[in-house]
Amino acid sequence: MRLHYLLAFVPAFLLSCTTDRDLADTTVIPDPEAVVVHYWNFNSLPSGTLTTVQPDASLVTGAAITYDGEGAGYMDAFDPGYDTNAQNGDVAGQGLRARNPSDTRTLRFALPTTGFRNIVLRFATARTGSGATQQSYAYTLDGVNYTSDGLVLAGFTTKEDPTNDLVVLDFSGIAGANDNPNFRFAITFSGDTAAGTSGNNRFDNVTVEGVPLVPITAPSNLVYPTPQTWPVGSAITPIQPTVTGSGIHYNINPALPDGLTLDATTGSISGTPTIETPAASYTVTATNAGGSTTAAIQITIAAASPLFLVHYWNFNALPTGILTAVAPDSSLLAGGAASITYPGTGAGYLDQVNPGSDLNAQENATAGLALRIRNPSDTRALLIKASTSGYKDIVVSFATTRTSSGASEQVYSYTIDGVNFITTSLPVTTFSPGIDPSYSVVTLDFGAITGADNNPNFALRIGFGGTTASGTSGNNRIDNVAISGRSL
Fold first, then answer.
1. Which of 35, 183, 397, 483 would bridge with 289, disulfide CB 3.0–4.6 Å?
2. Mind listing the pLDDT tens digit for each residue in 238-252?
């Protein structure tokens, strides 16, 4: 299957270079051998200010869109976009917005054409009522010096959103645009409103098409590891296909089970299944400009394996006096696999406190006692060592509170090597506990952190901060520490 021009044949008109047009030029005769070299549909743009926008699909590396210049103008996404010039059945989705003031900036497109000739650039465009009314077009062959020589359309007067136009710029008569890693295109903005502090120009579905200098070979030998069985609620280890070919776009039929996605660029399948699904066959199609190939993968989504209480501290049997290490009240692993200590310096120490809490209680434990973490706590940390050998999808939960002069902030980190503590991908890193007797439950889900799975070195560290953490009185309190996981 080839990604050919989408426009039907229309007569070509010989037009001289025009710097101000009210109608976009769409009269370029499609070349039946042309393929899409670069494509931006903008549907996956993140929120916020954008500095560089990579293409959604590309056959040549190095393509990007930037908004160079000075002043307060910037790029971001707008919604809804347009379906004009959309490829592969893409929905309107989002588009790219170049915000005012735009008269001090240039929207610049890096469009390497290495391996292609007869280049044609297309994009949908519009503006808001206060956006720049005039777009001017130029290109460079050396990556530095810009010109509009040879362009039939060198400028365009945009219409107001939601009306949009398809602009087509034909470089097929400009030999230097062929097979050129330095080819770039630029849009500058002008008109009475371009210098404003509001308003914007809008772009969507940017395509660069060209004829391959060497015929592109269709992908082949597409293979996925199959069959696959994954449980509900657990992030899968992404699976990658093997394939021969380049510039490939992937799609799948029927749609994957809920929670799973197919990366259209790499063919990787990833995610977290959410619903049980019986065994079914899914067909992945890999397509490039030369053709396509398919592969089948069988997927079953099974019921989630049960969550086991691997280690649990209810603290109800704590002795009186200073405590140096606290073993769990129950554990599925051999002795010594889990413990709680309070390493550091200074006068802080651990002891018991009465009453504890029934929040997060497991195994029908009563409120009983709790563990007291005495100030000064800013020079120490509560260390919960808890081997997860044989278990995955780890969840740590506990009830906690403090006295009025206890540390007002708890800081969480973990280790997977037993030495270095990190916060990477941790859903919660800080917490401010309420004042006793008001306990709160903190839940730290390590399900997406594969390094926490099946790890004899896993440990959680709780540091203490706030203005009262260095005091000589006051304490934090913790109860019903539960560490759960699913059996491997």
1. 35
2. 999 999 988 788 999
